[in-house]
Amino acid sequence: MVYGRDDATLWTLLTPPTVWALHFLFAYVAAAMACGETPFALGPVRVAIGVATAFALGLIALAWRQAYRHWGRGADRPPHDAPTDEDRQRFLGFATLLLCGLSAVAVVFSALPAVFLSDCR
Q1: Is the pLDDT of residue 2 over 60?
Q2: Peptide bond into 39 cis (omega under 30)
Q3: CA 6 to CA 92: how far, in whole Å?
Q4: What angle is formed at CA 108 by the lines to CA 50 and CA 120, rounded to 5 degrees?
Q5: How far apart, in Å, are the Cα atoms of 96 and each of 24, 54, 56, 90, 109?
Q6: Strands (E), 47-98
Q7: Which of 38, 44, 88, 92 has the largest count of CB atoms under 10 Å?
Q8: What global pTM score does this model have?
């Protein structure tokens, strides 16, 4: 099977957790800056975190779609442990699918404080 430029690599595998880490960093730094010396209502920060959450989940969904294609759309069940290029692609695709799910849950959980907290008290 020829994949051309669409090969799965370790960069493909690292994309979903990187998106989560950047989302986590943005959400908590934005909240910390808003609650600095003069705490105020978190309205604008909550909106920014909501937009960042939607953006992060969109990026993770794109990574999921690509990983699903690399996995072969589920045509062959794991384990993909044969020493072939096709099994390598399927293994990386399946591992990326799992990381996409984990990263999506992590993004939602790191955004939950913005949903429940309305001020800096």
Answers
A1: no
A2: no
A3: 12
A4: 60
A5: 19, 20, 16, 10, 20
A6: none
A7: 92
A8: 0.81
pLDDT tens-digit profile of 80-97?
A: 555 666 677 777 888 889
Q: Which residues, including other chains, have CB under 8 Å from residue 67's CB and lie 6 or more apart?
A: 8, 12, 92, 93, 94, 96, 97, 100
DSSP assignment string, 25-52: HHHHHHHHHHTSSS----HHHHHHHHHH
Region 19-43: what's the mean pLDDT?
A: 85
Range with lowest mean pLDDT among 25-29, 78-82, 104-108: 78-82
| Residue the block writes with tokens 């730094």 | 29
